[in-house]
Amino acid sequence: MSLPTLDRGTDLLAFDREHLWHPYTSMTDPAPVRLVTGAEGVRLWLADRDGVSTSPTSGVPVIDAMSSWWSAIHGYRVPELDAALADQAGRMAHVMFGGLTHSPAIELAERLVSITPEPLQHVFLADSGSVSVEVAIKMALQSQRGRGRPERTRLLSLRGGYHGDTFGCMSVCDPVGGMHTMFADVLAQQVFADRPPAPGGDVETWAEGVRRVVAAHAHELAGIVVEPRLQGAGGMWVYDDRCLVVLREIADEHGLVLIFDEIATGLGRTGSLFVSSQVTPDILCIGKALTGGYLTLAAALTTSEVAHSISRSESGVLMHGPTFMGNPLACAVALASLDLLAARGWEQDVARVSAGLAAGLAPLAGAPGIEDVRILGAVGVVQLDRPVDVVRATDAALREGVWIRPFRNLIYTMPPYVTSDADLALICRAVAAAAEVG
Question: Among this protein's residues, is 294 annotated catalytic?
Answer without folding.
Answer: no
